[in-house]
Amino acid sequence: MNRAFFVMIFAGFTYAVINCNVAEAAESALAAGGEALETVLELCGAFMFFGGITQILERAGATGAAVGLLKKPLRKLFGSEISDEALGAVTMNLSANMFGMGNAATPMGLKASKLLNPDKRASAPAALCLLLVLNSTAIELFPATVVAMRYAAGSKKALAVVFPTLISTSVSCIVGIVLCKLCERRKSR
Amino acid sequence: MILWVLAFAVAAGYICKVNIYEAFASGAKEGLETAVHILPYLASMLVAIHVMRDSGFLEKLYGLMSPAMGFLGLTEGVTPLLLIRPFSGSAALAVLSDTLAQYGADSRTGLLASTMMGSGETVFYTCALYLGAAEVRDSRYIIPVSLIAWVAGCIAAGFFFR
Fold this sequence. Notes:
Radius of gyration of chain A: 21 Å
Oligomer: heterodimer
Structural class of chain A: mainly alpha
Number of helices of chain B: 8
Number of helices of chain A: 8
Helix content of chain B: over 70%
Mean pLDDT of chain B: 87
Largest sheet of chain A: none
Distance between the termini of chain B: 25 Å
Radius of gyration of chain B: 19 Å
Distance between the termini of chain A: 37 Å
Mean pLDDT of chain A: 85
Number of domains of chain A: 1
Largest interface: A-B, 95 and 99 residues
Order of helices and strands of chain B: HHHHHHHH
Low-confidence stretches of chain A: none
Strand content of chain B: under 5%
Helix content of chain A: over 70%
Strand content of chain A: under 5%
Structural class of chain B: mainly alpha
């Protein structure tokens, strides 16, 4: 991120000098902070609303239900080599992710990562690769933050993206799993 | 529609004997914390985006990326999100917020950007964090596979909003 920020600012600066509009760019750069504050104020209401709903569903046992549903398919996916404890952590991590509970997902993910590399090998074992790919393809059932932002931006159909998100996240997830399995097969030959 | 979601959650919570008032308040607190947490990142990101836009660099970048984005079935307006999403969640939220403001939330670009935001993750950060915990140094194929999967998800999003 550090490098990305540098590239963005520097590219912008270079272009401003070339196009001779340094003053204009400077003015709008200064305005950015205020604009950020306004945006966050607009976002607050929607964030709190959806945060509240998510929390109710979570306490009503949504994650628990997901854990029950996911356990068997995940055992198939990860194979029989990983321990029950590791599988438990993996399941909790992915279930929390499904409900957009990043705060709950990260500690479980860290625990799962440790358990998936019990021999402390320097090169990532297959199961750990799979866990990371599943985490970075983000299976989220309801994109609460995005919907909240759409409301804040004055959308008339804020929920129109829920179904497309579900499909495209499933596509990225399946592509990720297939590629993982292909990479492992090529290696074992 | 949104009232239905609220009613459903409250009813489900009530039936399951959840202290719904307490739960909603604690969720709202988390939401507020998220909002406060992203503010500094939003400000930093907006500075970078504004400088890039007003200097004319973003236009140039759009021009360069335009054929590739067209090939993927995406609009050039989602270029910044496509590039920043794998690096940082807060930055991506900032970019999404800017995109929605620029193009309108219900425009094709706005709908696309919203869908893309939900179908990806911060690949690099997650990897660094989890691999660090597992004391792994060689990430093997994780990064390229995750990035390919991310682009595949974006292409899928493109199919919905032609």
